[in-house]
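Hello again, I could really use a second opinion on something today. I've been puzzling over a protein and I'd love to understand its fold better. I'm sending you its amino acid sequence along with the backbone structure tokens. It would help a lot if you went through both lines with me. I've dropped the whole record in just underneath, so have a look.
***
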Amino acid sequence: SLWGETSKDSPDRAEVIHAMALSGDSTLAAPVVEYVRDIWERTFRSNEWRSQAAEDLKSQRGPASQVFHSGPPDIDSRTRSIARFLTGLVPTDVALRPLTSDRSLDPIHRLFWIEICDFTRISQENLWQERTETLRDIERESPDDPLASVIAKDMLGHHERLLATFAEQEKERAARAAGLPIAFERGTSSDGF
């Protein structure tokens, strides 16, 4: 295969991976995940990426996780294609769960994948709880990594609000199923009332 013939240090390796991601063939997930775990991991660990992310964080308004959108780990089109491939076409246990929960990966790398899952609206509520636990772990375990800690804390607040929303929606579904009236608090409904 072209993947096996491409040297690990070859610039063509990234293009082969990009083509694999664009193919949409989920059987090609292993080399794409391997590439991400190697090349993107080095990017997120690099002083250059971290310094730029810290500067971006200081100057931006909005969620801390926006640093991933202003400074992707690869060229923008390749980052989007790989992220779309791994979040949309590859089974969760093959790519996302290991990329968000593997403690051998840099916390920033794990945060990137949690953000990508959120940004692409992966809606498996069971994964929300897992990712929220991972955010708590990263925040707690990263006192010597202020960048990871700040991003994790910000993302954790977002996740906890969403988990509360999921819980409220589940209560409403159960109440409707039981034929009970649904009470809305003023100013909290999705239509602005």
